[in-house]
């Protein structure tokens, strides 16, 4: 391994005897797929305003993550620490705030490149942005569901279970494979490269710190900026 990459890809000490494995991957992702299908059917048939669909979409995204993680965690291990639910240092959490801003910029560039190459300019986050722009109550509801709950739920299943379990195969497999699955879970659209960037950053953070909390902070900051920046721009131009 190239010496400049070794510190980045190094792994924090883990409980190898209780690290999640393929049973947790299969059970967790299967549960996620079932919940995803149920949510998709509900949203397709529900008569909701764009803002309400955005808020409910965030809430259900959180439910999908928490539900899938619960299935995986209760299967065999039944403890949280092996899934990275452990204390992180204040320094790593503070650094994660800055990394969240960096990840937002990088993911915006990646999404723009994807749109330029693929010619896909659909805004699949319109409902979320509509909810964030609906007034203070709507914004606070969006913040709780989209900046806090959804990042926790998604990080638990995609990093706590998937990236952790794949860690036994080394850094490249753990980081790239988990980020790819996370990206594909968001669909083939302009959000795919955004999710991939976030997935790579957070899988690396998990390896470095052994905790999912820094990644949750990065994820939350990215979501907050993705929802808030369009609102701020709209207010500034009116």
Layout: helices, strands, pairs:
Blueprint: H1 6-9, H2 22-45, H3 50-75, H4 90-118, H5 126-132, H6 136-166, H7 171-184, H8 191-209, H9 213-236
Keywords: Hydrolase, Membrane, Metalloprotease, Protease, Transmembrane, Transmembrane helix
Protein name: CPBP family intramembrane metalloprotease
Transmembrane segments: 25-43, 55-75, 96-116, 136-157, 169-192, 212-236
Task: Note down, in words, how this protein is organized.
With 238 residues, this protein is mainly α. It has one domain (6-120, 127-236). The chain has helices at 6-9, 22-45, 50-75, 90-118, 126-132, 136-166, 171-184, 191-209, 213-236. It is globular, with a radius of gyration of 18 Å. The chain starts with 5 loop residues before the first helix and ends with a helix. The model has no long low-confidence stretch (mean pLDDT 92).
Domains (count): 1
The gyration radius over C-alpha positions equals 18 Å
- Proportion of β residues? under 5%
Shape: globular
Structural class: mainly alpha
The residue ranges in which pLDDT falls below 50 over 5 or more consecutive positions are: none
Number of extended strands: 0
Let me know the average pLDDT.
92
Please give the count of helices: 9
């Amino acid at each position: 391994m190239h010496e400049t990459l070794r510190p980045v890809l190094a792994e924090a000490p883990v409980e190898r005897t209780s690290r999640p494995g393929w049973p947790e991957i299969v059970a967790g992702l299967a549960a996620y797929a079932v919940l995803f299908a149920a949510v998709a059917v509900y949203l397709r048939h529900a008569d909701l305003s764009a803002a309400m669909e955005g808020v409910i979409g965030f809430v259900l995204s959180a439910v999908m993550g928490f539900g899938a993680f619960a299935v995986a965690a209760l299967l065999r291990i039944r403890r949280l620490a092996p899934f990275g639910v452990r204390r992180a240092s204040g320094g790593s959490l503070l650094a994660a705030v800055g990394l969240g801003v960096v990840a937002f910029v990088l993911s915006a560039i990646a999404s723009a490149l994807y749109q330029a190459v693929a010619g896909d300019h659909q805004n699949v986050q319109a409902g979320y942005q509509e909810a964030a722009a609906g007034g203070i109550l709507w914004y606070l509801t969006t913040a709780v569901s989209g900046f806090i709950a959804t990042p926790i739920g998604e990080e638990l299943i995609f990093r706590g279970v998937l990236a952790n379990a794949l860690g036994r195969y080394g850094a490249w497999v753990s980081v790239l494979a988990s980020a790819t699955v996370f990206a594909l879970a968001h669909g083939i659209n302009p959000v795919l490269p955004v999710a991939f960037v976030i997935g790579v950053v957070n899988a690396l953070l998990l390896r470095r710190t052994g905790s999912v909390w820094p990644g949750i902070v990065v994820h939350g900051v990215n979501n907050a900026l993705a929802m808030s920046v369009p609102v701020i721009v709209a207010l500034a131009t009116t």
